[in-house]
Design a protein that fits this description.
Elements (H helix, E strand, L loop, with lengths): L1 E5 L9 H4 L7 E4 L12 H12 L4 E6 L5 H5 L4 H17 L4 E4 L11 E5 L5 E5 L1 H5 L19 H37 L2 E4 L18 H8 L7 E6 H5 L6 H10 L3 E6 L2 E3 L5 E3 L11 H10 L5 E4 L17 H22 L6
Parallel strand pairs: 1-2, 1-12, 2-3, 3-4, 4-7, 7-8, 8-9, 9-12
Antiparallel strand pairs: 5-6, 6-11, 10-11
Length: 354
């Protein structure tokens, strides 16, 4: 397991000098954040980011994320230009030592939460998804704005995009993903770059927009499109775990065994009976997921890839980017590494349960 930590660059309130103090961290997950989706990433920006990370004795081998332009997802005639840019960005990142790229194929909204500062009983705050808050929004009349949404679009542009995706439907979106993969995976194979597709977050339709990376059946269908080893997943326990129907430990075991997990986001979620959820501390007892079973599944299948603690609560009075404070993610990193070390110790003693 190669423990990583996400950093949003110079504007991130959490500094690299603090991050490097977390024991066991090997690298930083980051990106060139000031370039619009679909454009080329300047070589000098990549080089500068890499140098800044390495100056703190950390590696830069994982990009999160390299966004996919909406014209590619919608299958517009202009998609080929954006795909060419994507191919070149893969080549440029490979030249600078990047080995894995996280990306997603979610329409418009990317990840969606309805509140970023929900107060918990212990006085920490966290990200939540409450359906009743979503239902209060009339997408034809109200201001379209929720956490995680792309703010670069005008309200009219957002409505037109959402209408286009509803007309496209799930099958159309899948066909456009197939076309995209057919063009970028040969380049990824040439550059030995692992492409790690992130699941939908949350894993169900929102406002009638299609979702195609939400469950085992959909993931299997996508992975069957290309057998190249570079075609894989960002295995996000929190995203998949938002739906109680997803058996997250079983999925971890299945895809790790196939060698298709190139990057893992590991976090817990607390599921409500009505389907709502809040993001909890990483500890198994803090949420609805058995984090020990997930880690054991990865360990037993010989997973040695990149991992990062995912979203954390805001604790100890910390302020900053919601979900991406220092303290709770640092606790998560240590918790995950502690479980992994325990598995290693028991393996040496021949005591790991099957």
């Amino acid at each position: 397991m190669n423990m990583q930590f996400r950093w949003y660059g110079k504007e991130d309130p959490v500094s690299l000098s603090y991050i490097r103090q977390i024991p066991g961290l090997k690298g930083i997950v980051s990106a060139v954040y000031d370039v619009p989706a679909g454009d080329l990433w300047p070589e000098e920006s990549i080089a500068h980011l890499k140098a800044e990370i390495e100056r703190h004795d950390l590696a830069f081998e994982v990009v999160e994320s390299l966004p996919v332009h909406e014209d590619i997802k919608l299958g517009k005639p202009s998609r080929d230009v954006y795909i060419e840019h994507y191919q070149e960005n893969i080549r440029r990142l490979a030249r600078h030592g990047v080995k894995a790229i996280c990306y997603n194929f979610m329409p418009v909204l990317d990840w969606t939460r309805t509140q970023l500062d929900f107060p918990l009983a212990d006085q920490s705050t966290t990200l939540v998804y409450f359906q009743h808050q979503l239902e209060q929004m009339d997408i034809e009349k109200d201001q379209l704005s929720l956490p995680g949404w792309d703010t670069s679009y005008t309200q009219e542009e957002m409505r037109k995009l959402m209408a286009a995706y509803r007309a496209l439907g799930a099958e159309g979106l899948f066909e456009n993903l197939d076309y995209f993969l057919g063009n970028i995976l040969p380049v990824a194979a040439e550059e030995n770059m692992n492409m790690a597709l992130h699941p939908d977050d949350p894993p169900w339709n929102i406002f009638g927009l299609p979702r195609i990376v939400s469950c085992e059946e959909q993931i299997d269908r996508i992975l069957q499109l290309d057998e190249r080893s570079q075609h894989g997943l960002t295995f996000c326990s929190g995203s998949l775990g938002c739906n109680a129907k997803n058996d997250v430990p079983a999925l971890a075991r299945k895809y790790a065994k196939k060698g298709r997990i190139h990057f893992a986001h590991l976090r817990n979620v607390n599921l409500y009976e009505n389907g709502d959820f809040e993001e909890s501390a990483h500890l198994s007892s803090a949420g609805s997921l058995d984090m020990g079973a997930i880690m054991n599944a990865l360990f037993k299948e010989g997973f040695a890839g990149y991992v990062r603690p995912d979203h954390g609560r805001m604790i100890f009075g910390e302020t900053g980017r919601s979900g991406y404070g220092l303290y709770d993610r640092a606790l998560g990193a240590m918790y995950l590494q502690g479980m992994w070390e325990g598995l290693q110790i028991h393996t040496k003693k021949g005591q790991v349960a099957t």
